[in-house]
């Protein structure tokens, strides 16, 4: 067993999201893999394991922590201009070859990520809330690695956060179960899901199943969570017109009010063959989203090169309601009720109660917590 595993295994508690079976086996419900884990073995994520017939799960540390602009998550319809204290642990239930957070997500799976042991910082839920208050964050977000596999830790933090009036959110691959969504629902307000492809063969290449993610988007929306969807658009992998239409129609079939973000791939980790995504590809994808009936479509992470797709427009009169440059809010024109001031169309989202307090012309940069 590696040194990292020895350290991580001490930073655990007995989990909640599992059932005990015969012969000291357990069934984990934290993600869509629903791993059957026998005594002494680990789940696919590597960080949830069976010790003596009980499921041990991550607790009491972070491997990434900073206060980000909420637009970076990306949430474009949740408290614009606010800070989101974002935390992550180690491990993932997928093994995406293009992962930009692979040092933390592939811990215990890829030896090249062993240096992530140096990122471990012990904390309590109370410490996390204090960090949020110190950085003037309005939202606490579980992200960076896959938060579903550390849901018990997230809920431990979110309970404390809700007590002091902070909003809580997940940024996830969407490989969820009914059980984990019901477990999270009392604490979450917003859920960002990566819809990586509409081809199951692509999902299986990444370590997942397409249907699980599709079901999660539908269930989260039906539960009343605010949902935004991101598709990292990768040349030759998921950027054909046919596939982009399939994504857009699927989202629109749930609700035309769900924002869809199409974002640019860049060469990283093990995926260095495709070209970096061009702004023309993002504009083509965004145009498809609008044609499919989505009311809020955004082209991300190529700021200044995607025309109006950085901004929130009124779907009725096309008025610019929120003008952005990257993660910076330049103009905010929604009314206190979250409506267009020109035609009074209500804009779906979670908006600040006092529009005058929306921070304009911020730095758009993260705030270090340590």
Description:
- By secondary structure, this protein is of the alpha/beta class.
- The protein folds into two domains: 3-58; 61-304, Alpha-Beta Barrel (TIM Barrel), CATH 3.20.20.
- Helix content is 24%, strand content 23%.
- It contains nine helices and 20 strands.
- The protein has helices at residues 3-10, 102-105, 125-134, 151-163, 178-184, 200-206, 210-222, 241-254, 279-291; strands at 12-14, 18-20, 26-28, 36-37, 49-51, 54-58, 61-62, 64-69, 83-88, 121-122, 137-142, 167-172, 190-194, 226-233, 260-264, 297-300, 312-313, 320-325, 328-332, 367-368.
- The chain has a nine-stranded mixed sheet. It has a three-stranded antiparallel sheet with strand order 1-6-5. A three-stranded antiparallel sheet has the order 2-3-4, with no helix packed on it.
- The longest helix is centred in the C-terminal third of the chain and has 14 residues, at 241-254.
- The chain is globular.
- The mean pLDDT is 96.
């Amino acid at each position: 067993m590696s040194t990292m595993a020895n350290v991580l295994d001490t930073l655990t508690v007995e989990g909640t999201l599992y059932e005990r079976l015969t012969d000291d086996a357990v069934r984990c419900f934290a993600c869509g893999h629903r791993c059957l884990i026998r005594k002494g073995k680990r789940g696919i994520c590597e960080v949830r394991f069976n010790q003596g017939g009980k499921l041990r799960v991550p607790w009491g540390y972070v491997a990434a922590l900073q206060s980000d602009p909420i637009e970076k998550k990306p949430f474009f319809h949740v408290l614009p201009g606010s800070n989101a204290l974002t935390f992550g642990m180690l491990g993932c239930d997928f093994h995406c070859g293009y992962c930009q957070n692979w040092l933390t997500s592939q811990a215990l799976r890829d030896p090249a990520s062993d240096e992530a042991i140096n990122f471990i910082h012990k904390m309590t839920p109370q410490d996390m809330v204090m960090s949020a208050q110190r950085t003037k964050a309005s939202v606490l977000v579980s992200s960076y690695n896959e938060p579903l596999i550390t849901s018990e830790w997230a809920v431990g933090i979110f309970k404390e956060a809700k007590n002091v009036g902070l909003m809580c959110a997940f940024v996830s691959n969407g490989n969820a179960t009914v059980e984990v969504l019901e477990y999270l629902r009392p604490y979450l307000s917003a859920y960002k899901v990566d819809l990586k492809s509409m081809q199951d063969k692509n999902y299986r290449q990444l370590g997942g199943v397409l249907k699980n993610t599709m079901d999660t988007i539908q269930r989260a929306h039906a539960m009343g969570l605010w949902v935004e969807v991101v598709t990292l658009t990768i040349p030759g992998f998921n950027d054909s017109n046919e596939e982009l239409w399939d994504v857009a129609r699927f989202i629109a079939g749930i609700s035309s009010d769900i924002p869809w973000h199409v974002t640019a791939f860049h060469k990283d980790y093990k995926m260095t063959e495709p070209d970096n995504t061009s702004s023309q590809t993002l504009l083509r994808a965004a145009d498809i989203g609008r044609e499919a009936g989505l009311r809020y479509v955004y082209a991300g992470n190529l700021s200044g090169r995607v025309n109006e797709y950085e901004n929130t427009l009124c779907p009725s009169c096309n008025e610019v309601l929120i003008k952005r440059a990257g993660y910076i809010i330049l103009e905010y024109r929604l009314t206190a009720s979250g409506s267009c001031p020109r035609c009074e169309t209500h804009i779906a989202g979670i908006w600040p109660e006092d529009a005058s307090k929306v921070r304009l012309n911020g730095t758009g940069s993260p705030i270090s917590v340590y």
